[in-house]
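Researcher: We are triaging several targets before committing to wet-lab work. For this one, the compound of interest is magnesium ion. I'm pasting the protein sequence and the ligand SMILES. What I need is the predicted three-dimensional arrangement of the protein with the ligand bound, expressed as structure tokens, so it can go straight into our comparison scripts without reformatting.
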Amino acid sequence: MTAASSNTFPPTQPPAVLAVHRLTADAPGAIAVIQVSGPAAAAQINAIVPGHNALALQPGMLHLVHLTLDGAAVDHCLLICHAPNLFELHLHGGPAVVRAVTRALVGHSDSAPLPTNAPQPTSPAAMLSSPVAPSTIEAEVYDLLAVATSRTAVRMLANQLTSGLTQWCNHWLQRLSSNAAAQDEAALLHQFTLATQSLLHNWRWQSYFFTPPKIVFFGLPNAGKSTLMNAMLGRSASIVSDLAGTTRDYVDAIGRLVRGSLDMPVILIDTAGDRPTTDAIEQVSIDRTRQQAASAEVILLVVDASTQNCAATLADLADTAQRNFSQAVLIPVFNKADLLPHPPMTAANAIAVSAKQESNISELTAAIFAATGADQLDEAGPTAFTQRQRRLLHQAASHTSLKDAIIILKQLTGAAP
Ligand SMILES: Nc1nc2c(ncn2[C@@H]2O[C@H](COP(=O)(O)OP(=O)(O)OP(=O)(O)O)[C@@H](O)[C@H]2O)c(=O)[nH]1
Ligand SMILES: [Mg+2]
């Protein structure tokens, strides 16, 4: 077993079976981050983290674990699996614990020198580098892998290396290059522009797997907004009561929507009920509700379906939302379906749920995936996942010569400066 300290692998050498690097400064601090990578990484982590099998951890997941050395617990820390064979330990940053953990990971005796901290890996790209220097897309993939917050994002990123964006660029480079002598340059450029625009357009919903979209619960007091948010979160984040006007300030919480193999991080925002009022404080609450709705990607129009005028209430809410929050996807939700005769009568395309009984929540999740376009995700398909890529694609799509488009595509892949 080798403790590697270099961040490059010459072509003649295989990658190290184990590399241990301290990512934070080599000085006392509140937290120290230690990166452990290579085929032997999981086994070494298992040796000091009882009760967890690092081999079975899902990429993108965080685990609060105990670190145990010689049978004694020495620290409580976060274990992050970024990818198979690539882990991070976030432990307390005192020199004694960092030294002891590092020694345990690399299997050094107390008298043996510790692996050097220099040169430090600057990104997971360096840690996972192949004998061939990574292309620009590869470097961006590895940088983002370190901060991806969903398993879907991790898989999407991994796919961009061999298929996805890399394959898309190579396909178009090949088509544009081999057409150098063809007659219909304009038609080919037109096809390329359409493909590029489609790629850029898809980023709107692909981005939700990287940056959580804001989902706002909007409706009259007592519609069950707080109950619904709690049901979707799986915990009681917002106060529920039968008094209309319970929620005053908005309440936000990070959640996760799961649909089949896709998981999407989301920011759920419960708001004060929106109604005409003469109460100055309630008016401030409603102003805040509207501020949140104005920056939401998705607004759930929550209606108490057991009230007689629920269809008119929904029409009013939809009207307000369309006039004021046109940037958002609107999804009508008829709550309290448990109080209705079965099957519940609802307005067209409204989702009937019972927040209290937590029923039909998965249908609501499905509706959010469908309405945002996120259910179209092809994890292996191309994604322009950085601003640099999107800027270059915009340029490529607006260029009028094959030669310029080829140069820009080569810049995108890193094949040209
Ligand atoms: N039967 C039934 N009651 C529900 C359901 N959802 C919420 N409730 C009840 O409706 C009342 C109001 O629920 P909340 O979640 O506080 O409503 P809200 O929309 O957040 O109300 P405000 O904060 O006042 O705007 C509570 O008594 C809940 O228990 C449901 O699906 N079925
Ligand atoms: Mg509430």
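Researcher: Any quick observations?
Model: The first strand starts at residue 3 and ends at 4.
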